[in-house]
Amino acid sequence: MHSVIGLTLNEALQRLKQQGITPDIVFSMPGKQLRDMHERTARVVRYQDNQLLCSYFRDIDPEAQE
User: Fold this and answer.
1) Model-level pTM?
2) How far apart are CA 5 and CA 39, in angstroms?
3) Side by side, which strands form the sheet with 40-48?
4) Quick one: what percent of the chain has pLDDT higher than 70?
5) Alpha carbons within 13 A on the beta-carbon side of 18
6) Residue 45 and residue 55 in contact, taking contact as beta carbons nearer than 8 Å
7) N or C: which end of the chain has fewer CB within 10 A?
């Protein structure tokens, strides 16, 4: 099995589908509402027992200046 940790949810699902695997998906969410949810990407943080655990991360350019 190829590692799917760190991949976007869509990339991970596509990779697993190619292997004939349809996992359950669980999201880890913070206790408060994220105002910038539209700027975040669901990424896989764990794959265990046919379950993907995903969290939302902001994808930023490492070269970007703040």
Assistant:
1) 0.80
2) 20
3) 24-28, 51-58, 40-48
4) 89
5) 8
6) yes
7) C
- Compute CA distances 20 → 1, 13, 66, whole Å: 11, 10, 43
Q: Whole-angstrom Cα distance, residue 1 to residue 48?
A: 12
63 is written with which tokens? 């070269």
Across 13-38, average pLDDT = 88
The DSSP-derived string for the chain is: ----TTSBHHHHHHHHHHTT---EEEEE--SS--TTGGGEEEEEEEEETTEEEEEEEE---TT---
Indicate the residue type of 16.
Answer: L
Residue 44: pLDDT band (50, 70, 90) is very high
